[in-house]
């Protein structure tokens, strides 16, 4: 139906990354300010080709009931269209229109505006870029607010693609599809602002400190190597932040995505930086689609294309990596 053979779809996926029907069967979880480090093969196409889709534009869309009244998403530079994955060939909720959904309260650095259609912020920009690769111009991309939890539970989605900091363990492959990962999640070191300013980011030492570690983080060995006196396991990021505020711990290891959100605008807490992933394959943020969506393989292929071209790295660097969460060593 999409004009993509399974062999072609497999070629579109980087090592170990699922696409198409494979996407619906697996998932995992992580936290970093860098795009996925996997690399897709050259069969994704000539990335030096024209960045303008040759497909004829579809007719002007009628405003659907879920279409956002917000400003249209700005145009992004586009790669040559993927075979079988063009705006005129894809089946979307509204013909010729790609509808993205996100939660009711977009927050930085993922969205820099209450209007996700502004294209400002990492996830807003990723959505723009994915749509452009698929041949949807800015005026043919709309946004709909939605209940991400309900969508992840398999409820009908009022959009084609959900982007809302969805970690790999948060979606159920029996109920939804998910794309290739567009952002690696690492752990972040969070400390009181005054103490964090004393840490040398190029040779971190945590000598004598009591460090809390939120369940799911993978940096215990790194923390011990840096001289921490004790590591305290904590069930949730909220519990960790409360312990940090009360002085029960000196520092906190938590997922970078949560750290960026929970320390935004804080005068008392700072992100010292992102911890290296080490031997672990980082968990990733993924786009989520309805179970069996015909868009899934093309959305995954678009994400893979953006990774190969370096677009994801550029967007992460612009919106997240520096100076919000610099890498630590």
Find the CATH topology of the largest domain: D-Maltodextrin-Binding Protein, domain 2
Number of domain modules: 2
CATH superfamily of the largest domain: Periplasmic binding protein-like II
Total beta strands = 11
CATH architecture of the largest domain: 3-Layer(aba) Sandwich
Reported for the largest beta sheet, the result is: 5 strands, mixed
What is the number of helical segments per DSSP (H or I, 4+ residues)? 10
Radius of gyration: 20 Å
Mean pLDDT level? 77
Strand order of the largest sheet: 8-7-9-6-10
From the spread of the alpha carbons, the general shape counts as elongated
CATH class of the largest domain: Alpha Beta
Q: What distance lies between the first and last C-alpha atoms, to the nearest angstrom?
A: 48 Å
Order of helices and strands: HHEEHEHEEEHEHEHEHEEHH
> Helix amount, in percent?
10-25%
Low-confidence sequence ranges: 1-34, 37-79
Structural class comes to alpha/beta
Tell me the fraction of residues in β-strands, as a range: 15-25%
């Amino acid at each position: 139906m999409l004009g993509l053979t399974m062999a072609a779809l497999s070629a579109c996926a980087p090592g170990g990354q699922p696409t198409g029907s494979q996407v619906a069967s697996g998932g995992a979880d992580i936290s970093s300010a860098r795009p996925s480090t996997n690399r897709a093969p050259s069969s994704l196409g000539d990335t030096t080709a024209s960045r303008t889709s040759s497909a004829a534009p579809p007719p002007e869309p009628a405003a659907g009931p879920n279409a956002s009244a917000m400003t249209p998403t700005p145009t992004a530079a586009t790669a040559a269209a993927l075979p079988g994955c063009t705006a005129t060939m894809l089946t979307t909720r509204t013909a010729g229109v790609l509808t993205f959904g996100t939660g009711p309260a977009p927050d930085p650095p993922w969205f820099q505006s209450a209007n996700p259609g502004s294209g400002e912020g990492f996830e807003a920009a990723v959505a723009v870029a994915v749509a452009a690769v698929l041949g949807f111009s800015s005026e043919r991309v709309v946004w709909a607010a939605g209940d991400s939890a309900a969508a992840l539970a398999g409820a009908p989605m009022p959009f084609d693609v959900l982007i809302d900091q969805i970690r790999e363990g948060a979606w159920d492959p029996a109920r939804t599809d998910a794309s290739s990962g567009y952002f690696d999640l690492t752990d972040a070191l969070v400390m009181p602002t005054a103490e964090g300013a004393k840490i040398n980011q190029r040779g971190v030492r945590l000598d004598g400190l009591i460090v809390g570690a939120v369940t799911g983080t993978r940096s215990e060995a790194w923390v011990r190597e840096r001289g921490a006196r004790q590591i305290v396991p904590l069930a949730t990021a909220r519990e960790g932040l409360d312990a940090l505020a009360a002085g029960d711990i000196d520092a906190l290891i938590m997922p970078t995505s949560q750290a960026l959100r929970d320390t935004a605008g804080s005068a008392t807490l700072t992100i010292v930086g992102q911890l290296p992933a080490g031997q672990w394959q980082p968990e990733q943020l993924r786009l989520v689609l309805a179970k069996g969506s015909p868009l899934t393989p093309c959305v995954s292929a678009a994400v893979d294309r953006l990774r190969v071209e370096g677009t994801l790295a550029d967007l992460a660097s612009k919106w997240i990596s520096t100076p919000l969460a610099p890498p630590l060593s």
